Amino acid sequence: MYNAKNYTEQNGEVTVIGGKLVIEGTLEYAEGADVPSGGSKAANQADSEATTIAALKEDFNTLLAALKEAGLMEPDTEEPEPAGEGE
């Protein structure tokens, strides 16, 4: 008995891909199609209430860290230099 990983249900409205889908060429969506975003979302971050540049920098770095954690931005390739050094 053979169990297919990929199949279309009898009514033709659902196709199940149980393996890897490789598309060579272009992928087109019909107008009005529900297209998934394909990724996770960054955690919500409250609006900044910073009153100094230092506090605003802290809020901004927190935002960057959240984007990297969610996979929406490439992670750092090396450790950033601590503030005040090398200036």
Which descriptors apply to this entry?
87 residues; alpha+beta; 1 helix; elongated
- Across the major sheet, the strand order is 1-2
Tally of separate helices: 1
Report the average pLDDT across residues: 85
Described by the principal axes of the CA atoms, the overall outline is elongated
Order of helices and strands: EEH
Low-pLDDT segments: none
Structural class estimated from helices and strands: alpha+beta
Query: Sheet with the most strands?
Result: 2 strands, antiparallel
Number of strands: 2
User: How far from one another are the termini?
Assistant: 70 Å
Write down the Rg.
22 Å
Strand content: 5-15%
Oligomerization: single chain
| Helical residue percent band | 10-25%
Characterise this structure:
The chain has a two-stranded antiparallel ribbon. With 87 residues, the protein is of the alpha+beta class. It is elongated and about 65 Å long. The longest helix has 17 residues, at 53-69. It contains one helix and two strands; from the N terminus they run E-E-H. The mean pLDDT is 85. The protein starts with 5 loop residues before the first strand and ends in an 18-residue tail after the last helix. Helix content is 20%, strand content 7%.
Task: Tell me the layout of helices and strands.
Elements: E1 6-8, E2 15-17, H1 53-69
Antiparallel strand pairs: 1-2
Summarize this structure briefly.
This protein is an alpha+beta fold.
